[in-house]
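Appendix B, example 12.
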Amino acid sequence: MANRKRKSRRHYVYIFLGSFVAAALVSGASELFMQKLSLFWATVFLLVVILVNILFDIIGIAATAATEAPQHARAANRVFGARHAVYIVRHADVVANFANDVVGDITGTVSGAMAASIIADLVRYAPKLSASEVWLNTFMLALVASITVTGKAVGKTFAIREANNIIAAVGAVLATVEKVTGRQFGVQKKRGGNNNGSARKHS
């Protein structure tokens, strides 16, 4: 029991430190990147960040809504990425925490900072707008928030309805990345089987 509590505390410490470092790096990198972009491409980049936020929210919800049985059936037929999908479902709490909380909160914070940066650039290009900068900032932040919330609302419905298909697709993506990079994502290769299928069949 005491050992489990220590592991739990360590897990929370890792989450805190990892989130802090990731948020600092992403925020700093995006700020530097935004300074080199035109208003048009800065807006496009902002929309991409919002879409990433919505996409990972869908993945997090789908992970908690998906069931193991369909993924096991696919793994038994050695469908590419099926074992990764099983792993995701079995670790739905960790996946949801990473997708919804870590990625979601970081991209939410970054998108807000990017919106403010876009308004600052707009005022710099058109000094006459400086008198309305506060209202422009308010409007831009409200617009970003409404797009994000609406996108997540639509995404949640889709994630719950298509949970197993979404996780199957994510599993295939992870398997592809693993195959290309040679790096494993927690899924151990079964002895006597291939990297995606079930264990070796006995004759």
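Residues 26-181 form one domain. The longest helix spans residues 2-35.
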